[in-house]
Amino acid sequence: MKKLFYVLIVLILSTSEIYSQCSMLSAIMESDQEYEAAKGLNRGIVYLMSIPYILVGLIIWKIYRTNKAQ
Question: What string of pLDDT tens digits covers the 70 residues of the chain?
């Protein structure tokens, strides 16, 4: 279990900047010369995208802990 935890930590820390904008949004934001606004939108998209993965991970962890106790 500790190995899996360490592998997940290394994978999370080793990721570089993530771009999750669709091509249309990226083109619109870059054409307005508002790079900071595009950066803020990108961070918001990544934030909203990460919440379901965290929730699914917590559910799987809870099921694992419940089955391990039995």
Answer: 788 888 888 777 766 665 555 666 666 666 666 666 777 777 787 788 888 889 999 999 999 999 887 7
Contact yes or no for 30/38 (Cβ under 8 A): yes
Q: Of the candidates 21, 10, 15, which has an alpha carbon nearest to the alpha carbon of residue 43?
A: 21
- The phi-psi region of residue 9 (left if phi > 0; otherwise alpha if psi is between -120 and 50; otherwise beta) is alpha
28 burial via Cβ count (<10 Å: 0-12, 13-18, 19+): middle
